[in-house]
Amino acid sequence: MSSTPPPSNPSHPAWRVMKFGGSSVADGDNWARIGAEASNVLAGGGNAVVVVSAIAGITDLLEGCLQAPADFDPDATLAEVRRRHAVLAASVDADAGVLAPLFEQLHAALERVHAAGPEREPAPGPWAEVLAFGELLSSRLGEHILCGQGLDCQWLDSRELLVTTDNPRRSQRASRLSAECDTRPSPEMQQRLARRGRLFIAPGFIARDPAGDTALLGRGGSDISAALIGTLLDADRVEIFSDVPGLFSADPRRTPAARLLRAISYREALELAAMGARALHPRALLPLKKHRIPLWLRQTARPEIEGTKITPEAHEHGAQVKAIVARKNITLVALEGIDMWQQVGFMADIFGVFRDHGLSVDLVSTSESNVTLTLDPGANLADDATLDRLAADLGRFAQVDINTDCATVSLVGLGIRTILHRLGPALEVFEQRRIFQVSQAANDLNLTFVVEARHADRLVQQLHQQIIPGGVGGDAVFGPSWEALFRRAEEAEATPAWWRIRRERLIETLQGRDAAYVYDLASIQDAARRMVELPAVDRVLYSMKANPHADILRTACANGLGIECVSLAEARHALASVDGLRPADLLFTPNFGPRAEYIEALEMGLQVTIDNPWILEHWGADFAGQSVFLRLDPGSGLGHHKMVRTAGSNAKFGVPLGELERVAKLARAHDVSITGLHAHTGSGIMHPDNWHRTLETLGEAARELPDVEVIDLGGGLGVPDRETDLPLDLAALEAGIAGLKTRLVRPVKIWLEPGRFLVSQAGVLVARVTQVKGKGDMRYVGIATGMNSLIRPALYGAWHEIVNLTRLDQPGDQVYNVVGPICETGDILGLDRLLPECREGDLILIANTGAYGAAMASRYNLRDPAEELVLPCDR
């Protein structure tokens, strides 16, 4: 790095501005990368300004002192700030002593705040003065580090370049702590800096007001600093480096299938940033868009990843959802009152109140008697005191309700309005969630829902799964997924799936076969043990419709499980398959079955469940003297697809709670004892509180039914789609059940009936490659079986992990659609899958197919489905 770079032309200097965030500058290893990026610019004949944020956590630490000025110790705070900077300096062999003057100034500022006492929060001036030290410290230390690498780097005070503008509509506090600047390219400034040197490092986040005092650009303001400095210097581009390599189709930390957005327009990027994309501050885009300066988003630790390019040349592709994003900490303000009916000027009066309080309104929805709007914390400094004053002033016009625990979930992309009809099925994820507000942007770039904050992340995941093209890329809009970019590192930390460990055994088992389901009985045994070891659960039944294979039934029963069946054929099959299994060990839960089936089940001695008042009303005499279970509909269903939600008015299962009294009377009239209550809300549920809510509901129902001895919470326990996904939290499930169990009206037994949880991960579908085809940009790999063996992707849109078992150790470098031989367009087992180059005869493995795979297979096209094989338990 110490070699002399080629000279630049001071008369026409070319500038590059690079901003590095708090997590980037906090890591000593990253400073070598920062130096390398700067050296590359200099080596190309350009000049560079490096803009840095405060070391991660420093601004929060300082802000905590300001929020509780009487409760912090200035000496202890300064010691912690010193320590964190000393750790960074030591990691790069730098001397933190260069920061001594700044530490003295910070200590004096903290002493002044502390001495002011607890009566009130510090004024904007002291607040700005203290928080500015985060960036001042990191940039001064950064100068020392880069010079130590042999670079001729100079510290540049951003306050020399950036002057805030007055805005009479903004409060004094906002003008000082979330200030605005208006810059334009300045040839004079470009040349003046070029005469001083070629490489500078500047603190982000800070500017100066017209009086010369320090002002702040708001949280995340270092992005804005870089954009403003880039505009001032008419940079060839601005690059923002962070811990993610660009904009994604969702927050990749919460949605690993989120895909990198390769190149997007300013309009779409601005909308994404405004609606919550964390990789970019929305205000950073405005000056760059105005002056057509490209913006590149890159990752500090992985600079080789292409990142996201936001440029004037980026094509706006056709109508398409590009991303689904959430914003937390949204404040919802609702005004209700008939007095606003047809009142001229009412909205002007309302918005005048927000103006007077210095608050910017984000989303707005109106009717003749209601106005609902939101405040974005990124644009407002709305503390409790401000909101109290706002509510008091708005109360002169209407009844006011303020909810500070909201979030927005936004679908962002071009032409949203034109594709609403295609989004209909995906929007069913909101069916069980309260929506406070819906807003369709006038610019046709977003559709936004305001929801409870606790539901936002899950809604984003569900919407992403149904709307964004799956897989890992191959087109100009969507690049690789987060998991494709970082999968190898994650896999090293994850517990490998059984089929990775037993790969050679699987390959040996498939010798001479084109396709087969293979079940690992040891995995089923492990899952069964995890269930029966839950102390609060008194009995576990295997829901055999998930997979009725005889060896699976025997393994389940051998590990302490009973059987839940839904037809007499299933009951007979279970009794014939498992030695020693008695009819009393089975729970029979039919739905709309014929009368004869119920009569035979009672004669066999099965425990029968009824789920329709009609049964007792018309066939009550058949049940005289018997005890039955009653399946209730708790009122709402959950699951990964509408077709697996088994509660709610759109599902055919269960007795509505409103008919419970009628059923109880019918039971008494026919001398029928209701000894068990049962509910099943759906499949693939990953939230433990689902079963907690079910227990609360059935517990209340048991108050009306004195003979109830058992509450069956059903199944639906979800399994992760990917090895790296978090599993269902069984500890939380157990804790919730145990707590609720003690509050029931009387002691009862708690049952669970898992199906997919027990067998899904234990099964894989393995099939040989038959053909490979290229068709334009698309590549297809065909395998020896398809939707005749595995209908879930076509029926439910289910996602299954797919690997090339033959070449498991080779990295994926080709994007394929994995298809079967069935004559149907829907015979697609996986879209956009990153696999090694596939060849005829390779074995393709589809994971998580132990449940509802072979059980739902058919002979469509008169093609036999895959045979079923088992790997015995070796332990």
What would you say this structure looks like, in words?
- It is a single chain.
- By secondary structure, this protein is α/β, with parallel strands linked by helices.
- It folds into 4 domains: 15-243, 3-Layer(aba) Sandwich (Carbamate kinase), CATH 3.40.1160; 321-485, VC0802-like, CATH 3.30.2130.10; 494-502 and 508-512 and 761-871, Lyase, Ornithine Decarboxylase, Chain A, domain 1 (Beta Barrel), CATH 2.40.37.10; 534-754, TIM Barrel (Alpha-Beta Barrel).
- Helix content is 33%, strand content 23%.
- The protein is built from 30 helices and 37 strands.
- The protein has an 8-stranded mixed sheet with strand order 3-4-2-1-7-10-11-9, with helices on both faces. Strands 19, 31, 32, 33, 34, 35, 36 and 37 form an 8-stranded mixed sheet that branches. An 8-stranded parallel β-barrel has the order 20-21-22-23-24-27-29-30, surrounded by 5 helices.
- The radius of gyration is 32 Å and the shape is globular.
- It starts with 14 loop residues before the first strand and ends with a strand.
Average pLDDT? 87
Radius of gyration: 32 Å
Portion in beta strands = 15-25%
Q: Name the strands of the widest sheet in spatial order.
A: 3-4-2-1-7-10-11-9
Distance between the termini: 58 Å
* Stretches with pLDDT under 50, minimum 5 residues: 470-474, 488-492, 636-650
Helix content: 25-40%
Which fold name fills CATH's third level, the topology of the largest domain?
Carbamate kinase
CATH homologous superfamily heading of the largest domain: Acetylglutamate kinase-like
The CATH class label of the largest domain is Alpha Beta
**How many strands?**
37
Number of domains: 4
Indicate the structural class. alpha/beta
Which second-level CATH architecture of the largest domain applies?
3-Layer(aba) Sandwich
Shape: globular
